[in-house]
Amino acid sequence: MKRCGALWTRLSNWILAIAVAFPAFFLEHWFRTRCGHVAGVWRGGHGSWRASQTPVVLACLGTTDQRWRAFCSWGYDHPLAMANVIFFVNVCIMFWILDIIQQNGWLIDLYWTIIPVMMAHFFAAHPAAVANPTRACLVLILVWLWSLRLTHSYLRREGWKLGVREDWRYNDLRKTFKRDWWWMSFLLVYAFQQVLLVGLCLPIYAVFSSAEPLNLLDIAAAIACVIGVTIAYIADAQLHEFMKANDRRRAAKMRMRLVLNSGLWYYSRHPNYFGEQLFWLGMSAFGCAIGKSWVAVGVTMNSLCMACVTAMVEKRMLRDKRRADAYRRYQRMTSVWIPWAKAVRTPVPRPDNDNGNEDAPPPLGATSGGGDDHDTTPRS
Fold this sequence. Notes:
Residues 347-380 are annotated as: Disordered. Helices cover 67% and strands 1% of the residues. It contains 17 helices and two strands. A two-stranded parallel sheet has the order 1-2.
């Protein structure tokens, strides 16, 4: 019976993970089909109602048809604001309610890897979208590439089981604030994630709001994105193999390797974070290529947040007495984010319970919830 219950829980979580996206798809489809017939009204045609009355006035005082037209007008003129409304309804409210019911915020971890793709297609399909075809296609391909890499990494880390655990930071806060966490989570988890994710997607919005010709900065941006995704993929694969090797050693009752100090992890303590940030810097460069450098505010916010997360994760690693000494040595020798040569080429000291392997710190991530305290989902 327990096994059947576990199987049903896994299946129901997979069904839930798919079903929760339907409100966003419905709202987006409704917006395009329901509002499409008044595109002329958006542009000032089909009468003078828009010229004589503002959408806000009509939404409050007009007829039902005028209210729809007012909403359509607003959504047409403000695609970024419309995306925020859909995000707020589908993620901030709906995910939050499910979090309260399940006492687990795992959905936001999964959808962090998917929402940028959804937003990219919303901006691309918006009636007011205008873009250089080559740049638009390039950005969509790159966002999909980023999402596939990160989603695969997340699912592999979770053993292809959804809803088993949530971000360890949220879990710690849940235990700390207890009875108050139900309302605090709305702000600290969901509203905050909206600010970060929408901020990161600002360059995508900019790409679908300008038809400026392609230039050299676009090429540099694409190269940066590809390099970033590649670095993150390799770092994740190395981390995954390290963790699997430790699982095998644990099963064989052998002492675990405490520090991953080989491959990309030899040159950086967080190469997956570096790859992630390089990708979004590349995305911001697309915005700069069309003269909209203000979009870099998103990646700037995410970088500051990730710096805080990095500090939190490293403090957590140092609280583990098994690896604290070795990890401190690793910190002194190895760059935090940017892959760089070692400060001193000396072996990491071996604690008494180590197996003699000098090539390994517990690599890092942002949302580990157990096991070896590792994570391959570099996000804020």
